[in-house]
Amino acid sequence: MRRLWELAGVALGGLRARKVRTALIMLGPILGVAAIVSAIGINESSKGHLKAVLSDLGTDLIVANAQGSLGGFGSDPRIPEDAAARVTRLPDVESVTGTLQMADIVTLPFEEAEDFYRAFPVPVIATGLNLPETLEVLLASGRFLNDFDVSTAARVVVIGRDLADEYGYLRGEARTIQLNGIDYGVVGVLDYVLLEPSMDSAVFLTFANAEEDLGLDSRDPSRLYIRAPTNTKLVAQEVPTVISLGGPDGANTSVPTDLLDAQSQVDENLNNLTKMMGGLALIVGGVGIANVMSISVIQRSTEIGIRRALGHSRGTIAVQFLLEALVVGVLGGILGAAAGAGVVWLTAELRGYVMVLSVVGLVGWAMVSVAVAVVAGLYPSTKAARLEPLETLRLG
User: Fold this and answer.
1) Half-sphere exposure (Cβ direction) of 131: Cα atoms closer than 13 Å
2) Are residues 43 and 70 in the same domain?
3) What is the pLDDT of residue 74?
4) Does one domain contain both 239 and 322?
5) In Å, how far are 146, 288, 293, 391 from 394, measured between CA atoms?
6) For position 264, what pLDDT does the model report?
7) Residues 357, 225 within the same domain
8) What's the structural domain count of the chain?
9) N or C: which end of the chain has fewer CB within 10 A?
10) Could you tell me the residue range of the domain that residue 316 belongs to?
11) Domain end point (choices 206, 223, 254)
12) How far apart are CA 139 and CA 191, in angstroms?
């Protein structure tokens, strides 16, 4: 054991004496392990964030879009009001809200901005009164549209969170905006809608106002948001039939969280690809270790010859060089794992993810680095052990 410690000291001394060479041969394991750890960690953190979003949103929201000739020949497809009422009566449905995005509406925070907002129009959505409840979204400030607004024909709107920031809206501010030249008071700001990001930059008003002021021809929506806490998949299959009463033209339905869930499953394939690429980087790093250490054997031939002349066996020389490779693998693995973890932490901080990192994975990939380094060091150590004292005079 004492002899082994002495050899370890010699190996460490050799590495410290040649710092640049040591740094170069450590670079392969560091980059390989860091690439694997960071890529897998970022992917897992992203997946964890996605699962947290799914948990917050729930998986019971259904979106039904009108299709076919429901709106009549030559018009945009609509879902009749009575069809939306039929969906509401389904036993597993808790809430239904109809919406219709209107076209050719110019929305202005102030008249001087007319040219800009004509070129980049703001979405204007006529909506039912229970949209926040159906989407399970809170109000960032103020209130949503209500029955009083409908009964009094009050010209009021709610705006999305991003649009409020764009307009410079202040919480509780008495603010008006113009829709096609008509003033509307802003009574609330809808918080972020994760499943429908376009709503974050939209203006919401009642169907009554849209019909009275903006020329909407009917109060039939083109889209239904349906909250079904139980039997969601079954309800999604039933809704088109309920809307069309069994006819060929009705609505197509989707569960938005299904897309997010499918995305999280695809991430597993990305993980496997990442591991293959990181493994390739480690192999390339191993080849670099073998090359640099082989050159080092030639450069240190005089040292090897003197030690052989002093009675050191071939096995002792081989173990020394193998220990050098082992130290390179250990340090490279530790530094690579630390660098990869740092990248994962920084990415999680910047993107708002919850950092997900497996300690077992860190140790495992560091051990892979050690194994690659040892395997890569076998050839140089064998080459060093085979050198005879007289041969070193020729090389040195």
Assistant:
1) 31
2) no
3) 43
4) no
5) 96, 26, 19, 5
6) 56
7) no
8) 2
9) N
10) 2-55+260-395
11) 254
12) 5
Based on the fold, state whether residues 109 and 144 are members of the same structural domain: yes
- C-alpha angle 254-241-62 in degrees, rounded to nearest 5: 25
pLDDT along the chain (396 residues), means of 10: 61 68 78 82 75 66 78 66 88 93 91 86 95 93 95 95 93 90 95 88 96 90 92 88 73 75 58 71 74 69 68 73 80 88 88 80 84 80 69 54
- Tokens representing 343 are 């990248």
| Eight-class DSSP state of 171 | T
| Beta-bridge mates of residue 374 | none
Q: Residue 328's pLDDT is what?
A: 82
Q: How far is CA 141 from CA 124, 169, 171, 186, 191, in A?
A: 19, 10, 6, 10, 8
Is residue 143 within 8 Å of 188, Cβ to Cβ? yes
CB 70 within 8 A of CB 80: yes
pTM: 0.60
Distance CA 243, CA 83 (A): 5
